[in-house]
Design a protein that fits this description.
Blueprint lengths: L4 E5 L9 E7 L6 E2 L4 E6 L4 E5 L4 E6 L6 E3 L3 E6 L5 H14 L5 H6 L5 E5 L2 E8 L4 E7 L20 E6 L16 H14 L5 E6 L1 H12 L4 E7 L10 H9 L3 H8 L11 H11 L4 H12 L10 H6 L4 E6 L18 E5 L6 H4 L1 H12 L2
Parallel strand pairs: 11-12, 11-13, 13-14, 14-15, 15-16
Antiparallel strand pairs: 1-8, 2-4, 2-7, 3-6, 4-5, 6-8, 9-10, 10-12
């Protein structure tokens, strides 16, 4: 009867994840679940994220209780049809537990490279590359205050038959803190230099928020390097921006003051974990980090307004372009997706804030996969 039983195991959200905590179960034993339904919330060191059921069925067991921390791959629950008896389920769980070793994940981990430092002129950039193959590579550009882990639920999923690259912009994460004048055109020059350093002639560019504006500037200056544009809640398509978010992100230096600022990023506030908040506080304490953020904010968002109007660049881009926006974005209104050229594919993701690539990762991954081709 084992073929009628489906194990639910601790997922691997991102390259660095080795364990996760059961934050809360959204369904109870005996409940029927659909494929893709979020059945349990998993808390990691970066964010709390929903685990989607791999198939339709009945949740027969919650093997891991709420509050328990388990390694990636560990059994957390069991799906089975109603005809499967309890004895068979007990035997399945016992066999799984006796055979499971968290070391089994090492083989997968070995196939994923650790971040490396790549020199682009005088700058040192932290870069994460996954996958290989002949298809056109994909390059991810994060937003203001982010880093390459903003793509932890996307990068591996989009690495089939191609290189999938994320990196920390200057002034962010593990990269050089020198941001020059802090303008998007300057970051686009750096991004172009990174592509050259990686021997990539052309790539699909995925940019989020400020990274979307950088992607547009890259397309303007080096159109031959851009195979397609996927812009997720991009800066540059409207004037308004939540000034309190920008100011709060730059100035907040304690969890009590930073946490409500970060909660503006998502529709489901519970996704912002304590570990995520404390990680950003540690980053901001690095030499030059806060000054870099201030420089970017002053260059790109003076007086609570977006300084650049990049709609003309998007209209003039000759390659495929799509815009993805969370319907409940509190930082940049989804109104920015209105009145775009007909050639630009627009998707508004319901129940999602400023970071749909994290809140609705599966949906966003499917949108990108279908857009750039498998």
């Amino acid at each position: 009867m084992a073929d009628t039983i489906t194990p639910l195991t601790m997922p691997k959200f991102g390259l660095a994840m080795t364990e996760g905590k059961i934050a809360s179960w959204n369904v109870q034993p005996g409940d029927t679940v659909d494929t893709g339904e979020e059945i349990v919330d998993i808390e990691t060191t970066k964010i709390t994220n929903g685990y989607e059921s791999p198939i339709a069925g009945i949740l027969r067991r919650q093997v891991a209780p709420e509050g328990e921390t388990l390694p990636v791959g560990a059994l957390i629950g069991v799906l089975a049809d109603k005809e499967t008896n309890d004895t068979d389920i007990d035997a399945f769980i016992a066999k799984f537990q006796s055979e499971f070793s968290s070391g089994a994940e090492e083989e997968e981990k070995d196939t994923e490279s650790e971040p490396t430092i790549v020199e682009v002129g005088p700058l040192k950039l932290r870069v994460q590359t996954i996958g290989h193959g002949e298809e056109t590579p994909i390059l991810f550009i994060h937003g203001f205050g982010g880093d390459l882990t903003n793509w932890m639920l996307n990068q591996s999923s989009l690495a089939n038959n191609r290189r999938s690259i994320s990196f920390d912009l200057p002034g962010h994460g593990g990269s050089t803190k020198d941001v020059g004048d802090g303008k998007t055109s300057n970051f686009a020059t750096t991004t172009s230099g990174l592509l050259d350093a990686l021997n990539i002639e052309k790539a699909h560019i995925v940019g989020h928020s400020l990274g979307g504006a950088i992607a547009l500037r890259l397309a303007e200056a080096h159109p031959q390097k851009v195979a397609s544009l996927t812009l997720i809640a991009p800066v540059g398509l409207e004037k308004e921006i939540d000034k309190s978010f920008i100011d709060g992100f730059v100035t907040a230096d304690r969890r009590k003051t930073l946490e409500p600022v970060l909660q503006k990023l998502v529709a489901d506030k519970a996704l912002i974990s304590r570990n995520m908040v404390e990680g950003i506080i540690r980053f901001k304490r690095l030499d030059g980090a806060t000054k870099s953020l201030q420089t970017i904010a002053e260059a790109c968002f003076p007086d609570g307004q977006q300084v650049e109007d990049l709609r003309g660049i998007l209209a003039g881009f000759n390659g495929p372009a799509q815009v993805i926006w969370g319907a409940d974005d509190e930082i940049l209104s989804a109104d920015g997706a209105k009145n775009l050229p007909d050639k630009v594919k627009v998707t508004i993701v319901a129940g999602t804030g400023h970071m749909p690539q994290l809140e609705k990762a599966s949906e966003v991954n499917a949108l990108i996969t279908n857009f750039i081709g498998k």
